[in-house]
Every structure is written in structure tokens, then in C-alpha cells.
Design a protein that fits this description.
homotetramer; four-stranded mixed sheet
């Protein structure tokens, strides 16, 4: 978990969006997910504020983890940048990044759909770095976020 | 679409559960799904009421469809039975059955998670018949529904 | 609390509606309700199954309660019958019955609206027995449930 | 309708909260509200940005309206200020202001509860200006918002 829209909450006192805790355990419960998972929260930030150091931290954790298959929840704005760093730094593992356009806490989120998608792709795809959004899976070097539509698409 | 808990609605006049229309288009919109899909409703029934003729109809539709990759939403109670019929009757296609334990209309359903999962597995798995539930994917001949826990599990 | 659609849950193992616990404390939290309330669950049943003894029990509890203002959550089908018994048996108190057409657990319920309505009417209305549904408040002897529309209406 | 948290939406492209349309008609439908209402949107703004001219506009509309009973949805931060202006400028009408701490669009809002409450209080209270929040009703000159708890309370 790294944060992103996925895990944004509404602060009713200040009327702002903020990060509290990850909703992942609740989402696993909702999805009746029976996969044997290890959940780790590395940071809880907006991906527009993610620094090179943050990406190093994610890459290092992926490389050192005993797991061969990893899903990363991430803000959509710079998800492609993090995927590139991971492709350069982590070898021999299947890594799928996913996120959400609408916070899970808002009730009508795409997050649960994307999580089901990412957890499924990661189980069957060969080693590599991918982005799972909009029901699709993109290789890290052939994807961009369309800022106007908010959708991910292949570059070529 | 064949119905199942997935698409059950609450009839507020009679206080009963019933089938109206499929929620699939709404779920695709929630999931911001950009896959190019052909959606067809074959029936809208409880899978406990599904007959051998109904399963024939599903198999025939899968066999005749021009699509190579097919997701079937189905009640969970007899999903395994339908998978067996499909494995006998349809060759050379990737078919993934999925369903839900909680109706989508109830707000906290596993349906959106399962749909994201099934649509992802079907894109990458080789020809065969599978069941995608609980974040996992099972081959048609190695899965059963545990009636007590409501979870799907491998038989061996 | 006496049950009713208000508190129906979906049993995901058996695919049926049933009663577990009341959702009232959760609804009070959602509504940020700061009223000083005493909550008591007398029964948790479908109002079609409510007997004369059940109505006696409700009336006795209302009469013996130290509270002057009482809200009763109740299935809508026989709410008018219970209101009549209360009007005969309990004097000098403001009693408002309310319910829901859609279970609270289903996410898009009228229950939260009706609860806010009933708790408000009960604070200002003079002693008497009333039904608060559909944003309106009816005297116990001038109300019926329209079985076709599912709405409550004045009889004259 | 004047806006406020009640009607805030999440802009999934920019990741911000904004105002689009009022959710009032949808809330009336959810609440199965059968009251004969005239709905008018005067503005759709955050109450922290409300000016003296905006409050004049609200007061003028209340005074000129043929209705004797009026509910105003309003941001909670300056609801008390608007109530004071209305008390000075509008006579002989029952006016109840209400709002929400959580946007209705977020699925677990207090808005539906508060709306049911405000619509009920306004039907029975004598002429005057009131604030309905947290299940309670306060006279305009004896209420403040506690900025720390986010709850409304009597001043004395």
C-alpha cells in the first residue's frame, strides 16, 4: 500500500480529503478474498507528492520481499513513473500496480473492481511490471494515463 | 449473464428478493471498465432452479459465440455443475464463471471484486473452463463450494 | 425496536433475508445523533408474524417506561394495528412508530430518513400515537398503508 | 438549497471536491418522501464563502416565497450566521436550516437523517428560525457549532 485515491477519507471537521488508514483489509473482507496475502503499508500519500526517495523505498521493498507476486496500490497520477522505476530495479517478479479514481470510502468506488483485477492478473502473468486499471492490464513501458478522460491506455 | 445472487433485487412492496435486470452495465461503469465486451442475458434465474435444458442453452451459446474469451455470471450454488457441462461441450475457449454471495444492489457486495477478477483471469488463461471466486481461480474439475463457509475451495 | 424491514439482513449462506441485530446504534452514529436515548430491543420479527401477545408486550413496555417520548421501529405491514393497540393502552405519552421499505443493510434505504423524521416529530408532538413515514406524520386513527404503492396515506 | 457539504461531489479527474447539482431530488426519492415540496436552488457554494449579499438573497427569497414552512440546506460552518440574518429579516414563517458533515455522495452521510429531521420539525414548529442538526432542533439565538467535535450545541 502506498496511498492514492484508493485510501482517501473525508475529514468531516475540516471538510477536506486526507489519509487515515488503508481500506485494504475491509476490501478483502468485502471481496471474500481467500488468498494468502501479506499486507504492508509503505506510505500513505498522494502520488503527486511522491519523491524519488519514496520510489526507491518501494523498489527496495519489492526486491527484498520473499514474495514472487506483488500488488501495489498507488495514486493514479504518477503510477506510470513508479512502474518504470520498478522495472529498472526489480527483476524476476510479477508486480501489478493498481489504484482508484474514486475513494473506496465514497461507496461507489472503482477500487474494489480494480483490486479484484490486479490480484487476478498478478497470479497468472509472467515476471514483469504491469498496471491494472479499467479492467485491462498494461506493460509498464506501454501505458499512459489520459489526463482528460482519467482512463489508462496503451501508448502504441 | 444467467442471474444468481449477483442480480437479485429487493422488492419493497412484497418484501422479497427477485430478479429484475442485470446490474452488469452499472458495474462496468463503476469499475471504469474499458474492455470491449458483448453482454448477453441468457436467463435471469436462481441457480438452484437451473435445469439441464438451461445448461444446454448456456453451452450452445458459448460454443456458437464468435468470442474466444467468455465470462459467465451465475448463481454460486450450482456453478460447478454448469462448469462441468461447459467443459464437456465447449472446446478451445477460455470460459470463466463467477458470481456473488451478496446481491450487488445491497451496497456491500463481493460482486464488483469478483467481476474484476473474472474479467482479468479470462484475458490471460489458456482455453479451458474455470471458476473465479474469492480472489482465486479454480479449474472446473478441481473445485467445490463449501456450503458451510460459503467459500470455494480446491477439492484436492 | 421490534424488527421489520428496517433490520433485515441478507444471509449469504442460505440466500435469504433474516434478522440478526438492530442497526439502530449504527444509524445513530451515521446521523451524528446527539439525543440522549434509551434503546431497547423488544423483539426482532417481521410485523406480519406479530401476535396479539407481541402487541401487548409493546404496549406494556411503553406504559411502564419512565420515558414520555417513545419511537418504535416496526414492520410497515401491521404498523397501523400496533398503533391502534397503543392508543387504547397507553395514555399521556408521545409515541411515534416508523419503519422502512428497504432494509438499512442494503445501502440505499429509506430507514435513515424515516428515523430522523420520527425522532424529530416525537420531540414536538403532544401526547398521542402517530405514524411517521414518507416524510409525513399521521394520527393513529387516520392512516393506512397503501399495499400497491407501499406508501402511507391519510384515510380521510 | 444553498450548497454546503450536503451537495459536494468528488471530481475524479482532479481529485478534488466540488459542487455539481443538488442531490435533493434523489434524497427525496430514497426517503420515499411524499410531501408536496417546491425545491429551489439559490446557490451551490461552500458556506465559508457565503457573503452578506448571499445571505440577503436567501432572506429575500424566504420573505417573498408564498410558502409558510421552509427548509434550507446550508453548509454547517456559517449556518448560525445565516439563521441570524433570517431571524432579523423574515417574520411569520417556520424556517429550519440543516446540513451535513459528510457529503451525500459518499454513501454514509448524515444528510438523509438530517433532511428527514428538518422536514419533520418544520411541519410542526411555530413561526421562527431554527437549526436542525444531530437529531436536535435549536432556536437560532441559542446554538453554536462546536468546531472541534463538529456537533451543534445549545449556548446556554
Amino acid at each position: 500500500m502506498t496511498g492514492g485515491t484508493f485510501d482517501k477519507e473525508y475529514d468531516e471537521i475540516r471538510g477536506e480529503l486526507y489519509f487515515k488508514d488503508t481500506h485494504l483489509p475491509e476490501m478483502m473482507r468485502l471481496g471474500r478474498c481467500m488468498l494468502d496475502l501479506e499486507i504492508r503499508t509503505l506510505m500513505m500519500i498522494d502520488s503527486l507528492e511522491m519523491t524519488a526517495e519514496d520510489r526507491e523505498l518501494i523498489a527496495t521493498n519489492c526486491a527484498r520481499s520473499p514474495e514472487q507476486r506483488i500488488v501495489i496500490t498507488h495514486g493514479t497520477d504518477t503510477m506510470v513513473d513508479t512502474a518504470r522505476v520498478l522495472a529498472e530495479r526489480v527483476a524476476g517478479k510479477s508486480i501489478v500496480l493498481t489504484g482508484a479514481m474514486i475513494p473506496f470510502a465514497f461507496g461507489s468506488s472503482d477500487g474494489l473492481f480494480n483490486l479484484g483485477s490486479a490480484l487476478s492478473f498478478v497470479q497468472v502473468l509472467p515476471a514483469g511490471v504491469y498496471i491494472a486499471m479499467n479492467g485491462q492490464c498494461f506493460a509498464w513501458d506501454n501505458v499512459r494515463k489520459n489526463r482528460e478522460s482519467g482512463r489508462f491506455e496503451a501508448e502504441r
